[in-house]
């Protein structure tokens, strides 16, 4: 299996569904993971991630959160745009 040690990852919508599985995989492979999500479930306390609450439909909010993430962990090596709304 591949390793992602010393890599930073940003995942949108990473706290439920497919996104949560993506987060689990990247963490297991050694990446430093940051997650942007609209909701804060209890699971976030158990994960080894940087979490930022954000509505990705709000560009001003997204730009601000991205700036915070870059200051805290650097520019992401990998971005997974997973957030979405199921109707």
What does this protein structure show overall?
The structure is a single chain. This protein is of the alpha/beta class and 87 residues long. Helix content is 31%, strand content 23%. It contains 2 helices and 4 strands. A 4-stranded parallel beta sheet has the order 3-2-1-4, with helices on both faces. Helix 1 (17-28) links the parallel strand 1 and strand 2 (32-37). The model has no long low-confidence stretch (mean pLDDT 90).
Furnish the topology, listing elements before pairings.
Layout (H helix, E strand, L loop, with lengths): L7 E5 L4 H12 L3 E6 L11 E5 L5 H15 L4 E4 L6
Parallel strand pairs: 1-2, 1-4, 2-3
Number of helical regions: 2
Q: How many strand units? A: 4
Structural class: alpha/beta
As a percent range, the share of helical residues equals 25-40%
What's the end-to-end separation, in Å? 35 Å
The spatial strand order of the largest sheet comes to 3-2-1-4
Largest sheet: 4 strands, parallel
Shape: globular
State mean pLDDT (0 to 100 scale): 90
What fraction of residues sit in β-strands?
A: 15-25%
């Amino acid at each position: 299996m591949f390793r992602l040690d010393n890599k930073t990852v940003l995942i949108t919508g990473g706290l439920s569904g497919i996104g949560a599985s993506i987060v689990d995989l990247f963490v297991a492979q050694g990446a430093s993971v940051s997650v942007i999500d609209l909701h804060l479930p209890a699971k976030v306390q158990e994960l080894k991630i940087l979490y930022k609450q954000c509505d990705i439909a709000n560009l001003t909010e997204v730009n601000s959160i991205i700036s915070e993430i870059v200051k805290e962990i650097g520019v992401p090596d990998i971005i997974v745009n997973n957030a979405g709304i199921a109707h």
